Write the structure tokens for this entry.
Amino acid sequence: MAATRWGPPPLLPKPLVILLLLLLLLSEPYFQINGHDFEIEEATIEDVQRAFGDNKLTSRELVDYYLDRIQSLNPVLRSVIEVNPDAVAEAERADSERRREDNVSRSSLHGIPVLLKDSIATKDKLNTTAGSYALLGASVPRDAGVVERLRNAGAVILGKASMSEWYHFRSPGIPSGWCARSGQGLNPYMKSGDPCGSSSGSAISVAANMAMVSIGTETDGSLICPGDHNSVVALKPTVGLTSRAGVIPLSPRQDTVGPICRTVSEAAHVLDSIVGYDQRDSEVTMAAAEYIPSGGYAQFLNKNGLEGKRLGVVRNPFFTVSSRTPVFEAHLQILREKGATILDNLEIANIDTVLNPLLCGEAMVLMAEFKVSLNEYLKELITSPVRSLSDVIIFNQKNPVLEKSEELGQDILIAANSTNGVGEEEKQAIDTMDKLSREGFEKLMLDNELDAMVTLGSDAATVAAIGGFPAITVPAGYDSDGMPFGMFFGGLKGAEPKLIEIAYAFEQATMIRKPPSLKWLGLSCSM
């Protein structure tokens, strides 16, 4: 049974999957650009725009390539919930605009297919469900703010990526990368490897070349962790730099929308297209607008971006001695050789409290914020099977097979539904988190005059999350079993230009990322 281009494809027998993958490999499209072979796999936005300009590639060909990859790989990886039935038409429209030769300056995302996390609303034929059947068929009033910006930039909406259902906020028993609508998303590097979430599908798809770039969201780790675990670049923007309007909410205080890409360059180009003020998310986007640099973020793609930077290394408790230690030490030496000053073995005050969601108050506040903000979102839908968190819980109870509610539970949803808004206790917890950030991460950065904090892995994501700070992860290596890990760089609010400079210079000096071989499918060649 062939995978469809609408909705999650059915699981296929392994021999048929392998045959499809081999056929895809044999038909890998190449194009001649300036006398050189051009391969779409692993191509960057800049490569593709150059190919567009030389009339060696069309957006239609690019979209067809990714649709074919999805059709072949998604029965196993389960990282795409739906593809956009209008994607081909959108690509052809972009090609038509390019052929006009009207000397119009176009965005770097013009004609580029973009995959969206399934919690980011699109006013088209796609669903927006947070991975749950409870929202299947709901009608949104308009595009999300970031989608509107993507369309204005000429991007092609490729489809919706799978995710950890309800941001992994339904039950602790739900595995990372699982949602009812698409099943279990798999790490393309290692079948048993954690894909992490909740933006799992966005990261898996980009890593496996099922999408050129994708958009995810983060409340606490949902961009950084999937990026780290799937050997891609994930950029978590300062809260408010990108609009959350039209995005299924968890916490208005911590939610942010950001790019997941294969390179830092692509992340910077995507960020340029999605930042800015939105009157439907006015308070935070207005406050963060002051951080947006004149000329955008791509100008900070500087191979010498480490020169003069002060980087603070925080090992404890994020990274202790392990098989990754020699790799980390080698990376620190590269940072030094490229001109950075390294301040090693720094520590964040009260870090054990920061990382414990019960002690710092994050868990309690998120449950209250989720109920209030989700109810508001659901009430604004034009049509919807559910209108409140209570309705979602009842839906799961009535559909135990669809949602695996008896097997996996919904304890967190029920606990969140028992809250009564952000009251005094929650406000005190927010004050506690603000104080922990101020006396911990902010003090570390300011006292040591740091441009960025550095560590290995994704465990430091919570430090950035509770304070609304930006962070980026860049591929840093692979364990002996093939499991990827990344280098984490975090900064103070508005530090995206510095983080891009640092991350890009590190990436260009190391060039660690490699596409997954998918050997666990029985293939011996790279896809």
The chain has a mean pLDDT of 93.
